[in-house]
């Protein structure tokens, strides 16, 4: 009787912890749910909103969110919008001017060219919204119809986290620093904030400013994994550091699963990733391809304890070129929730095995994948080499 009572008590406590955590840290998928939450965040704001995104498109979804932002500005809420000049290059001037005329403070992160620098390898890749230092959405979801989906088309597969905890204040401070160009080159360790029984940290990656928190967190998680690594990866081409950590984990017998793009908005990168499939399979990695829409997610779970979601792709461009931001969550409940979502995705994927790979791997396909791999790696090298040159210029003695 006492044993059964203790089990019931522990189960009740676990359910309470899970419910408690969900108040502070919530998993969000791309689609209508994400944009409803974004609208609610904007509509509830009383003082200040920061929206930072790589892509903001002039489509139904973009206009829907723009309308909410304009209404917030009319309520005398300070609205700050930071867009990447390359990612949002297609946004009409009239659209941007309309936002400004409605009182929104709008800035584009670095033009492609300036007098002294070539910027194409260094992009502002954030996907963040935060209001009143209380509520935030952070992940990999841009503002465009393709992330919302339609009746006939699935939204691009992507994730975000809604934060209703002190981490939102930290995130708003960081967004303000980026908007007002107050970024510091000092490397300050990320802080873990309490969120119910979970711990939440905001991770930055900006190699030029000596911030490699996301890359460090992934590497450490792989190195210290005890049982399992599961990743949703778009544009998946790990550089030397992450690849070594991956391989060591596989050699130690860690179950490693990757969910990759069967359909991609950048086919060259997808083929470059396919070139690595044989080596992945030789390392006993399980590969699943999602073919219902484009894979754009950047998320991982390790040992059902540690999770991360954000803008950071597992490739050299995110490690050394772009400005990225992720959230890390230390919580068994959140990890299990994300892991369950991954399982649902996997159930709708095609598994790549050595047999299925042989069926598709004709001579011309292999050659095309190899050429794609060489082209993509060379392009990433060039794009990340340019920020390295700027680093040397700024910091050489």
TrEMBL record:
Native source organism of the sequence: Flagellimonas meridianipacifica
InterPro entries (alphabetical): PLD-like_dom, PLipase_D/transphosphatidylase
CDD domains in UniProt: PLDc_CLS_1 (cd09110)
PROSITE patterns named in the record: PLD
Alphabetized GO MF terms: phosphatidyltransferase activity
Domain annotation PLD phosphodiesterase: ranges: 120-147, 291-318
GO biological process: cardiolipin biosynthetic process
Name of the protein in its database record: Cardiolipin synthase
């Amino acid at each position: 009787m006492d044993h059964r009572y203790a089990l019931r008590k522990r189960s009740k406590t676990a359910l309470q912890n899970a419910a408690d955590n969900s108040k502070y840290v919530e998993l969000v998928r791309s689609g209508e749910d994400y944009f409803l939450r974004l609208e609610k965040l904007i509509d509830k704001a009383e003082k200040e909103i920061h929206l930072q995104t790589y892509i903001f498109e002039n489509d139904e979804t973009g206009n829907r969110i723009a309308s909410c932002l304009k209404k917030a500005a009319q309520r005398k809420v300070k609205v700050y919008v930071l867009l990447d000049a390359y990612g949002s290059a297609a946004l009409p001037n009239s659209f941007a001017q309309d936002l400004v005329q409605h009182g929104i403070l709008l800035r584009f992160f670095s033009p492609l060219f300036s007098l002294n620098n070539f910027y194409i390898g260094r992009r502002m890749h954030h996907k963040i919204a935060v209001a009143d230092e209380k509520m935030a959405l952070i992940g990999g979801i841009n503002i465009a119809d393709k992330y919302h989906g339609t009746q006939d088309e699935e939204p691009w597969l992507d994730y975000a986290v809604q934060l209703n905890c002190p981490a939102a204040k930290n995130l708003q401070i960081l967004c303000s620093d980026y908007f007002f160009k107050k970024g510091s080159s000092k490397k300050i360790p990320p802080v873990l904030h309490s969120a119910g029984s979970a711990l939440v940290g905001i991770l930055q990656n900006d190699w030029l400013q000596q911030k490699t928190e996301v890359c460090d967190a992934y590497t450490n998680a792989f190195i210290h994994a005890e049982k399992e690594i599961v990743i949703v990866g778009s544009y998946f081409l790990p550089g030397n550091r992450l690849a070594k950590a991956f391989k060591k984990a596989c050699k130690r017998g860690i179950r490693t699963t990757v969910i990759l793009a069967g359909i991609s908005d950048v086919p060259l990168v997808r083929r470059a990733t396919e070139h690595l499939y044989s080596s992945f399979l030789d390392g006993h990695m399980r590969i699943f391809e999602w073919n219902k829409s484009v894979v754009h997610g950047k998320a991982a779970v390790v040992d059902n304890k540690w999770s991360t979601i954000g803008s950071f792709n597992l490739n050299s461009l995110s490690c050394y070129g772009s400005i990225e931001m992720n959230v890390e969550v230390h919580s068994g409940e959140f990890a299990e929730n994300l892991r369950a979502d991954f399982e649902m995705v996997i159930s709708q994927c095609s598994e790549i095995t050595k047999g299925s790979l042989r069926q598709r791997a004709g001579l011309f396909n292999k050659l095309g994948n190899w050429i794609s791999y060489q082209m993509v790696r060379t392009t990433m090298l060039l794009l990340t080499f340019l920020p390295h040159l700027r680093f040397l210029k700024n910091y050489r003695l």
